Amino acid sequence: MINNKSKNTAVIKAEAKRLGFLSCGISKAEFLEKEAPRLETWLKKNMHGEMAYMENHFDKRLDPTLLVQDSKSVISLLLNYFPSEIQNPDSYQISKYAYGTDYHFVIKDKLKQLMEFISEKIGEVHGRAFVDSAPVLDKAWAAKSGLGWIGKHSNLLTKQLGSFYFIAELIVDLDLEYDTPVTDHCGSCTACIDACPTNAIVADKVVDGSKCISYFTIELKNEIPTSQKGNFEDWMFGCDICQDVCPWNRFSKPHNEPLFNPNPELLSMTKKDWEEITEDVFQKIFKNSAVNRTKFSGLKRNINFVKD
If you ran DSSP here, which 8-state letter would residue 178 be given? Predict the structure, then answer.
């Protein structure tokens, strides 16, 4: 294996760009000291609601060396999903990230290609790919790798493109050059906090997951509490309110990933169309979509809850 940190780092970043990633940042694989007390407090306050899996693998969430033996570097990557066209604004809404093919499939494929490239060009490198399906604190790693700062809504923000992108990682046993964090540019702005209809943003960078519309419409398997009736502003799967109102998102640019393009029907459907949706239409529109997580029955539950 060629042990040339500078050259290897440049080669990996160039290939990430070629694969369509917005940006690539690298940080040292080590225990996330600052995140440990924050995560512990968040869990103790039950801000994960019924997302019991958030309690699992506490140590692994904070220490990448427990996920990949002898790991040296965390390679963080961003992939844009901001659409060129959005849904009929008078209709029930789904979060923009779920418009097209489920991002897990799209990103996993790109990460696999990047991992193969690294082994081919650099030598035998061991590592694992992660797309929010394992105990990895993606936003913390992306911020540590200089890809942006954590906004008050707890999403990663960049001056150039706002926050409509996915975050993924490769954790590898390869020494690379590390990037440094960028400064926070939220200032005194509280647009996201003020706009959240369920008051889920309880403090700077702290979201009570159990109050978030995304939690209610995706993660919650039981009935949605009646106390939330009238608070969802037509969101039937996920929610983009805190991102839509963020001033930095005026710089969002449409993605160029064909797999993220929605079924055209999705954009034009009216409230009546959604209320009358059949399982066949659901399967057709959301064939390979992340919306499948809530299933047809879950989407119907959400529509019934948000309709007048």
Answer: P
Angle in degrees, CA 306, 248, 263, rounded to 5: 50
- pLDDT exceeds cutoff 90 at 54: no
Looking at per-residue confidence, does 57 or 109 come out higher?
A: 109
Judge whether 167 is annotated as a binding position.
yes
246 labelled as ligand-binding?
A: yes
| CATH placement of domain 5-172 | 3.40.109
Where along the chain do the CATH 3.40.109 domains lie?
Answer: 5-172
* 3: confidence class by pLDDT, cuts 50, 70, 90: low
189 marked as part of a ligand binding site: yes
The catalytic site residues sit at: 132
Q: What is the pLDDT of residues 37-47, one digit of tens each?
A: 999 999 999 98
| Helices and strands, number each (H, E), in the chain | 12, 10
- Which residue pairs, CB below 8 angstroms and at least 24 apart, start in 260-264? 260/81, 260/83, 260/99, 260/100, 260/101, 260/103, 260/106, 261/83, 261/99, 261/100, 262/83, 262/85, 262/99, 262/100, 263/287
Strand pairing report for 73-80 and 165-172: antiparallel
DSSP string of 256-305?
Answer: --GGGPPPHHHHH--HHHHHT--HHHHHHHTTTSGGGGTHHHHHHHHHHH
**Residue 261: CB partners within 8 Å, gap ≥ 6?**
83, 99, 100
Radius of gyration of the chain (CA): 20
For all residues of the chain together, what is the average pLDDT? 95
Query: 221: annotated binding-site residue?
Result: yes
Return d(Cα 48, Cα 61) in angstroms, integer: 15
Tell me: is residue 242 an annotated ligand-binding position: yes
Give me the amino acid identity at 279: E
